[in-house]
Amino acid sequence: MIDLHTHSNISDGTDSPRELILKAQSAGISVLALTDHDTTSGWQEACDSLTSGMDLVLGAEISCQAEGGISVHMLGLLFDSENQALQAELAKTRENRLSRMDRIIEKLNVAGIEITIADVMAQLSDGATLGRPHLADALIAKGHVNSREDAFTALLHNQSKYYVAHYSPTPEDAIRLIKAAGGVAVIAHPYASHRGRVITAESFRGLVDAGLDGIEVDHRDHSETEKASLLRVAYSYGLAITGASDYHGSGKINKLAENTTELRQWEKLELRANNRRVVRK
Fold first, then answer.
1. What percentage of the chain's residues is helix, strand, coil (to nearest 5)?
2. Is the pTM of this model over 0.85?
3. Could you tell me if 247 and 255 are in contact, meaning their C-beta atoms sit under 8 angstroms apart?
4. 176 CB-near residues (< 8 Å, 6+ apart)
5. Facing residues of 36 across strands?
6. pLDDT, tens only, 142-163
């Protein structure tokens, strides 16, 4: 089984990188990608925790913003972690997440919902990328909501009056950075319409021109109609087709390997990286 999209508590998952590796190995996963939001900080712990029997793909899920303010997530896999341009862009995105959180909290406070940045920061693991799930956890701790799902449904979704965008690169720029760092770029859950507005089939032309390598088709947030539409796009451009869990530990109901990638599709992706960077022991 090949799962190319998972998160640890270095971003908004609940398992440490070590716990994630152990759970994936116990689940019989043969290839696992660690793709925390806008950071590579969990890579070393994941590598140190790896034992024989499973390949580890190191990556990141990069927050992007397309034309019209549409949120897009780009999975960068197998890139060189020492690439300064990509790391600088990730750092810039992380820094802007803090000012964004301040503005969301201000809006919540005006509405009478008592929460502070200190409450939110208390939910982060050391070195973790700040995100709305941490605000959700703080709202749970303060008794405002019962779960992350309740927090996003009531307060934190993309159409909420409390929503605030943050700086992020365009999807095309993110792809170019990933490719310049020797990696491969896979767009994550691009048609998950319940999350907010999504890109069009026509917009894939620009992504492909920038170097897009694959599309995450099999994802729990895609309907069967959306999957069929994405398959047509992937076939028309010769892109790799992936499936993944988008696992977050107890932060979401997603289960490890609930969607997977076929071996030949993974091999197609791996060949597009400029070096063999899969970690194995």
1. 40, 15, 40
2. yes
3. yes
4. 210, 211
5. 60
6. 999 999 999 999 999 988 999 9
